[in-house]
Amino acid sequence: MEGQYGWGTFEDGWRKGPWTPQEDKLLTEHVKLHGEGRWNCVSRLTGLKRSGKSCRLRWVNYLRPDLKRGKITPHEETIILELHAKWRIRWSTIARSHPGRTDNEIKNYWRTHFKKGKMTKNIERARANFLKQQ
């Protein structure tokens, strides 16, 4: 299949761009029936024109029923700051302390609220508190 570049187009037989509600429904139904895993088979079994990696990322980051929706709370932010002082950019390690939040969500939160090179008082305070506890 000849590919075009842009949103919602096909490239090498795979659909690129935003997911449709119908695609989300197909993926959700597939996972309910077959469970997570074997993502490379999803396309063949469901008719989705998405790669296994794309299906896995869509499920993990957006469709899982246990995901928390909405803004990160001040309490969650405090924990992120404290754990960042300890683990730096090990987002998956930090995410384990936030059930329902993904490593990608925490990374994006960090990057949008605490820009690289601009250390805020909160970050310094969290680092100082963490180091005191050591």
TrEMBL record:
<keyword id="KW-0238">DNA-binding</keyword>
<dbReference type="GO" id="GO:0043565">
    <property type="term" value="F:sequence-specific DNA binding"/>
</dbReference>
<dbReference type="Pfam" id="PF00249">
    <property type="entry name" value="Myb_DNA-binding"/>
</dbReference>
<keyword id="KW-0539">Nucleus</keyword>
<dbReference type="InterPro" id="IPR001005">
    <property type="entry name" value="SANT/Myb"/>
</dbReference>
<feature type="domain" description="HTH myb-type">
    <location>
        <begin position="64"/>
        <end position="118"/>
    </location>
</feature>
<keyword id="KW-0804">Transcription</keyword>
<dbReference type="InterPro" id="IPR009057">
    <property type="entry name" value="Homeodomain-like_sf"/>
</dbReference>
<keyword id="KW-0677">Repeat</keyword>
<feature type="domain" description="HTH myb-type">
    <location>
        <begin position="15"/>
        <end position="63"/>
    </location>
</feature>
<protein>
    <submittedName>
        <fullName>Myb-related protein 305-like isoform X9</fullName>
    </submittedName>
</protein>
<dbReference type="GO" id="GO:0005634">
    <property type="term" value="C:nucleus"/>
</dbReference>
<dbReference type="GO" id="GO:0003700">
    <property type="term" value="F:DNA-binding transcription factor activity"/>
</dbReference>
<dbReference type="InterPro" id="IPR044676">
    <property type="entry name" value="EOBI/EOBII-like_plant"/>
</dbReference>
<feature type="domain" description="Myb-like">
    <location>
        <begin position="11"/>
        <end position="63"/>
    </location>
</feature>
<dbReference type="InterPro" id="IPR017930">
    <property type="entry name" value="Myb_dom"/>
</dbReference>
<feature type="domain" description="Myb-like">
    <location>
        <begin position="64"/>
        <end position="114"/>
    </location>
</feature>
<keyword id="KW-0805">Transcription regulation</keyword>
